[in-house]
Design goal:
The complex is a heterodimer. By secondary structure, chain A is α/β, with parallel strands linked by helices. Classes of the chains: A alpha/beta, B alpha+beta.
């Protein structure tokens, strides 16, 4: 990839082997610049989720190195993982919303869990909900929301630490095209504010429409690394 | 700090409410085991105290052979005093014993020759080892041979000693087994809570909550379960004590039990339960809360 001078994220010859000699990643080297928006695409089992989980340290590489902002995160001790995760926002594929808590409580709970005071929570939650355009549904329970709205809440929760990096695993996997596009626009807006955004997805129609960098994976290897020719309209 | 503590405590209370059946089972089992261990411990302590208080009454009468000289009497008394477990030795001259009887029962003793031998009254410091002391005294040359040489309440001593021994074993075995069962139940309750709250745990792990924040509510849960078990055990002991006291009064108007140290005993049981709950819950969350 040209134009990358100081990589924010760098994978160097990374291999991941799951128990039973199942290879998840086979020697991937990749660089991502600060403020970039990149998609990891590929079929199921191609390695896109593994690539993301290496950054969140849900998975540890078998060999190679992974650096985030110049720091080797591949061999962090367990006790250092929470600190790493506070430096990023993670949007899981299944939203992971607490069903018995309202929208604002879902965000507030996450803030309380990372040590924010009640006062801070009261001040910040409305701001965050506003940022992802879900403030009008603040008192609803997750089961009263559409898939797109639920995804917005998951993104809102990922923003509680003001992260410079946002990672989303299949954020449009459960959404119809219209809601998928809304979520992508939201991610784009966050990217325009300077947040580095990494998205694992197989929703090619939406991805091509975004006009962003696309890293295609197959069988744990990088098949292609290009910028989509179709610009975002 | 208080803000943080209120969040962690709130999380623990939510878990206790949500998993109330298992919580109830864990508390009751902990209570029963602590009741048995605490109760038997209390009875053991009281029985030991009672046995000690009986020491004065646990005395031996040592009969000397006819014709024992004053020097032999003195030597024998000194030798008995050196035996471990002997508190005091009093010489009772046969003339003194007979004079006492004559003054008490003048008609019965009139014209009768003094039947008493010279003797010692020996008191013990402890009820244990009565038999051993008796054997040692019996082997002294001035002491009369046969069963009448050393006379004491052998059966009573043996009964108290055996009782204490049985209490120790029964308390240790039954209480210990129940203690292990309570531990397993607390462990299981915490594991179920971890399972029931896996989504909250996942959210906390996703947003970067510290290990401390994730673990502490479960530890508080274990501590609360153990401490509540101790509190219930204290209440059960109070009821048992009152029931026993009522039973004694029904048998004898003069019988009574010493005051029951409810708060002291309950505090100890709560502290033991809380410590045990902490250890079991710590064990239960060790593996499932790893960051993966």
């Amino acid at each position: 990839m040209t134009g990358i001078t100081a990589p924010y994220i760098e994978y160097k010859d990374v291999c991941v082997e799951y128990p039973g000699h199942v290879k998840g990643i086979r020697g991937i080297s990749l660089q991502i610049a600060k403020g970039e928006f990149a998609f990891f695409v590929g079929k199921t089992g191609a390695g896109k989720s593994t690539l993301i989980k290496l950054l969140t340290r849900e998975v540890e590489q078998t060999s190679g190195t992974i650096q985030l902002n110049g720091r080797d995160i591949g061999h962090l001790k367990d006790r250092d993982i929470p600190g790493l995760r506070r430096e990023m926002g993670i949007v899981p594929q299944d939203f992971a919303l607490l069903p018995r808590k309202r929208v604002w409580e879902n965000v507030a709970y996450a803030m309380r869990a990372v040590g924010h005071s009640r006062k801070e929570v009261r001040r910040r939650v409305p701001e965050i909900l506003e940022q992802v355009n879900i403030a009008h549904r603040a008192d609803a329970f997750p089961n009263q929301l559409s898939g797109g709205e639920q995804q917005r809440v998951a993104i809102a929760r990922a923003l509680i630490n003001n992260p410079p990096l946002l990672i989303a695993d299949e954020p449009t996997g459960n959404l119809d095209p219209e809601h998928s596009w809304e979520i992508m626009e939201l991610l784009m807006a966050l990217n325009l504010r300077g947040t580095t955004v990494l998205v694992a997805s197989h929703d090619m129609m939406v991805i091509h429409r975004m006009g962003k960098r696309i890293v295609t994976l197959e069988m744990g290897r990088v098949l292609s690394d290009v910028v989509s020719e179709t610009p975002h309209d | 700090m208080i803000d943080r503590l209120s969040f962690l405590t709130g999380e623990a209370l939510t878990a206790l409410r949500r998993n109330y059946t298992m919580t109830f089972a864990a508390i009751i089992t902990a209570a029963v085991s602590l009741f048995l261990i605490g109760g038997l411990g209390y009875v053991y302590m009281r029985t030991t105290e009672y046995a000690r208080s009986l020491t004065g009454r646990f005395e031996m009468r040592v009969i000397l052979k006819d014709g024992t000289t004053p020097a032999q009497i003195s030597d024998t008394a000194n030798t008995i005093r050196l035996i471990e477990g002997v508190k005091e030795v009093f010489w009772i001259p046969k003339e003194k014993a007979w004079a006492r009887d004559k003054s008490k029962f003048p008609d019965l003793t009139e014209g009768v020759e003094n039947p008493y031998p010279d003797a010692f009254k020996v008191t013990l410091t402890d009820v244990h080892g009565g038999e051993l002391i008796a054997t040692k005294i019996h082997s002294l040359p001035a002491v009369a041979s046969g069963d009448e040489g050393v006379q004491y309440l052998k059966d009573v001593q043996r009964f108290v000693d055996d009782g204490l021994h049985t209490l120790r074993w029964v308390g240790g075995a039954v209480g210990g087994l129940l203690f292990v069962a309570a531990g397993l139940l607390i462990y299981n309750a915490i594991r179920l809570t971890v399972l029931a709250r896996r989504l909250e745990i996942r959210v906390m792990q996703l947003v970067g909550a510290s290990r401390f924040t994730i673990r502490v509510p479960f530890l508080i849960e274990g501590i609360v379960q153990g401490a509540l078990g101790g509190l219930v055990a204290g209440g059960l002991l109070l009821l048992a004590n009152n029931a026993f006291a009522a039973f004694l009064v029904s048998r004898s108007a003069f019988a009574s039990l010493p005051p029951f140290p409810f708060w002291q005993l309950t505090s100890i049981l709560c502290a033991c339960g809380a410590l045990y709950g902490f250890l079991c819950s710590n064990l239960a969350v060790h593996t499932p809360l790893k960051f993966r």
